[in-house]
């Protein structure tokens, strides 16, 4: 019994820790919060940037100049990005590169800043360098960032699923793919990561974001994600500018699927090929596990009390 209690408690703490890992806040070295990250694992939303006042910038700049500790210059550059001062941020990151060359974070942030400034060629150069320095960065999804920049440089004819994702989902009302479910899941994860980062800075119509959101909806449908979240993704794609007959077919199909599920006429979302997957159901696991955790000490107490009483009787 005690072993069961200990095992259950260990499982509870492991789940609690995994939930805690999902609580993301980006901070400066002194603990100042500069961004609150999106908590959803299915709907990309970007981070909410926390604007800093000029006193923070003046303090960090003074500390950098006085101590020449690159921690302060790194924080200074980050605050400049958060405050939308991209040209100044670019200069600070170039200064960082000069002070301590070939750092992945510097190269990656320089690439992002150049892209925010509309200089996609320099952005591509620095993101490629970042990938060379750390190929596994951003959950190994930066290959997609490179494709996005190449598409932006190449023009509208490259802003499509084939070029961006190296695949296609057909033209029917239900997306289809020759990729395995595992390959589709990996692709969806990379796409979600890149969109989640990108939506921190893009809040209006954008051709690439619209295309990628539409692709994410297709991938979510193909991998059996919650049908209502699929509908939300198709709606987001339209909000960012995706339109046309294919959107109408896919969105109508997804809505019909959700209506059938609501009426009990369908319990599963059809996947590509012969596979089928039950729609994701979101249970309040944290609440359930918390209740269990509160019950376990009571059970352990009663068990131990019973053992003590039996010893006294003996």
From TrEMBL:
Q: Which domain of life is it from?
A: Bacteria
Secretion signal, residue range per the UniProt entry:
1-20
Q: Which SMART domains match?
A: TPR (SM00028)
- Residue intervals passing through the bilayer: 283-304
UniProt entry tagged with the keyword Transmembrane: yes
The record ties this protein, via SUPFAM superfamilies, to:
TPR-like
Q: List, alphabetically, the Pfam families matched.
A: TPR_8
Q: Where are the TPR repeats?
A: 104-137
Q: Please provide the record's keywords in A-Z order.
A: Membrane, Signal, TPR repeat, Transmembrane, Transmembrane helix
InterPro entries named in the record: TPR-like_helical_dom_sf (IPR011990), TPR_rpt (IPR019734)
Q: Indicate what this protein is called per its UniProt record.
A: Uncharacterized protein
